[in-house]
Structure formats: structure tokens, C-alpha cells
Amino acid sequence: MAKFLGIPSSGAQGGQVFSRNRFGQYTRTRAVPVNPNTPKQREARASLACCAAAWRELIASRKLKILTLILFVVTATFLSGCATPYKPSGFRGGYREIQLAPAVYRITFRGNQYTSSERAQDFAMLRAPELALQHGFTHFAIIDEQSSETAYIIDGVTTYKPKTGLLVQFFKAKPDGDFAFNAAFLQQSIKQTYGIE
């Protein structure tokens, strides 16, 4: 495409096309559209034609139900994508920890209004085995757990933001008599549940 400074014109002439856009008049070489009409293209076009014909035959009430279902699925997908991801604490929430003793940590996970209480609890539980394994421990026990939800009212709409706090103690081996989580197993299990790499 080249800028053209001649007499204003538009259309095709010979092998050239003359036109104008917001930057001024231009010319380009004429291109003939290519349609190879491959078997895959024919299959896709036939499938689309079939769907269009079926849609035209539906009555209005059935179309409304289908559109409502599509809207619901899209909204649910969008809202689940807005939940606080597993990450260090930031604007949208996340985890943080404080070391209280050589093998004792307080872990908190704060979620946004799209995060369920269960997700916040699971992500706090995921941070515990990560810390244990990072520091050379194989097991941990929960000494104390606290969960809460903070309510916010904006324009008459109430939303809740969950928060989970864990007080955990780490061990180099499974302690006798005490219930303790296997850090490697729990980490793998929760990551698999939420599709976290």
C-alpha cells in the first residue's frame, strides 16, 4: 500500500485499487480472493448452515431459554475467573505468613468477593505444605484455625470477602500420637484440585 498524491479517485483500474482512509488517499495492488474450498472448509460451512437452520426453526421461548443458559454459563465462567488466585498477598488478596518460632508459622489467606470460603481455606492449607517443604520439613499439624468473612455493602449490594488463618507447626518426620498432614501429599492433592502447576 502506498500513499497516492494524484487526483482524488476510488475504485479499481487495471491492477490497482484506489481508496481513501483517515490518513489520506492510497493505492494498492488488486488482490483476487482465494477460496480453495477444501473438504474441511466444506464440512465447517455445512455444520454452520445446519446450526443456522435449526436456530431459525426454534420458537422464541426456546431461543430465550437457550440464550439465558448461555448467559449463565458465560457469567459463571467470568466470575470464577475473578476469584483470588493462589499468589502472595496483593490488591485482590492472597497468602502471607509470619514465622513465630523455628518450626511454627501463622498463615493467612484473604480472598476477594468472588472467592468462596472453601477456596480461601484450601489455599491457606496449600501454603502450609509449601512452607514445610521449603524449610526441609515433611509433616505439619494445625495448632489453631480461624475463618471469617467480612461483609461490604456497596450501592445496596452486600458482598463477602473470606479470610482463613492457620497456626501450624512443622516436623522433620511424622510425630508419634499426633495427627499430622503429609506435606508432599497434601500439596499435590490441593494443586491437582485447582489445576495449579
Q: How many discrete structural domains?
A: 3
**Topology-level CATH name of the largest domain:** Translation Initiation Factor IF3
CATH class of the largest domain: Alpha Beta
Radius of gyration: 30 Å
What would the average pLDDT be, to the nearest integer? 87
CATH architectural designation of the largest domain? 2-Layer Sandwich
Fraction of residues in helix: 25-40%
The computed structural class is alpha+beta
In DSSP terms, counting alpha (H) and pi (I) runs of 4 or more, how many helices?
4
Terminus-to-terminus distance: 46 Å
User: Roughly what fraction of the amino acids lie in strands?
Assistant: 25-35%
Order of helices and strands: EEEEHHEEHEEEH
Shape: elongated
Poorly predicted runs of 5 or more residues = none
Question: What strand line-up does the widest sheet have?
Answer: 5-6-8-7-9
* Count of individual beta strands: 9
Largest sheet: 5 strands, antiparallel
